[in-house]
Write a structure and sequence with these properties.
Protein name: Phosphohydrolase
CATH class: Mainly Alpha
Number of helices: 10
Keywords: Hydrolase
Oligomer: single chain
InterPro entries: HD/PDEase_dom, HD_domain
Strand content: 5-15%
Largest sheet: 4 strands, mixed
Low-confidence stretches: none
Radius of gyration: 17 Å
CATH superfamily: Hypothetical protein af1432
Pfam families: HD
GO molecular function: hydrolase activity
Length: about 220
């Protein structure tokens, strides 16, 4: 059984993510490269462990999390489907059929429109939570402040000083906790661009049997 450590060393996967990083940097998108891939994988594994999934289920979620954005070097549109197919082409003979399908579904499902998102596995819900909760100034690629201020996605990410998920197994609640510099952007701008993300997170948490909460600057908003 392949592990996350082995996936992280695979030359094709590394090249896919490297080219995604370069491609989206040219488009001045927020980071979708190695930083984001590693964070989502780590966060997915942590969520799986804290909600009580098996070690292997957590490994599968983390693998999907590491690979979820690697199709972006082919096209930003439908990158989720490209990523799933790339994974199958590289590892089609290395996973048992069930694990392979779960990873492919998870990669394909992470970036659908709100009405299309569905969950066929815990891994799919976990990766959505891990991915959509990654808002932070380190995701901003452009360097010039005037360019950062001109793009709402960059503004909100740049203003976010910390971002973490807190899981309360007893209360069955998953909470995204953010610290945002409101001198740089008003909190309303966060909701202006990330409302759909919060809907995805709520639905993902519900699939896992949890409520979803949002705390910004120590104020509970959800």
């Amino acid at each position: 059984m392949l592990t996350l450590t082995q996936i992280k060393k695979h030359p094709q996967i590394l090249e896919f993510i490297k080219q995604t990083e370069l491609t989206l940097a040219e488009l001045s998108y927020t980071d979708h490269g190695f930083r984001h891939a590693n964070l989502v994988a780590e966060r997915a594994g942590k969520i799986a462990k804290e909600i009580g999934l098996s070690q292997r289920d957590g490994e599968i979620a983390a693998i999907a999390g590491f690979c979820h954005d690697m199709g972006n070097f082919l096209s930003r549109s439908y990158h989720n489907y490209f990523g799933a197919l790339l994974f199958q082409q590289v590892f089609g003979n290395d996973f048992n059929p069930k694990e392979l399908v779960i990873i492919m579904q998870t990669i394909a499902n992470h970036d659908k429109r709100k009405k299309e998102v569905s969950f066929a596995s815990s891994a799919s819900a976990i990766v959505i939570l891990a991915d959509k909760s990654d808002v932070h100034r380190s995701r901003v690629i452009v360097q010039k402040m005037e360019e950062i201020k001109a793009d709402i996605h960059d503004r909100v990410n740049y203003a976010t000083r910390s971002s973490r998920l807190e899981i309360d197994k007893n209360k069955k609640r998953i909470t995204l906790i953010l610290r945002i510099d409101t001198n740089f952007v008003p909190i309303m701008e966060y909701f202006e661009i990330f409302t759909n993300r919060m809907v995805f997170c709520r639905r993902a948490a519900e699939y896992l049997g949890y409520d979803f909460g949002l705390v910004i600057n120590k104020f509970r908003l959800l």
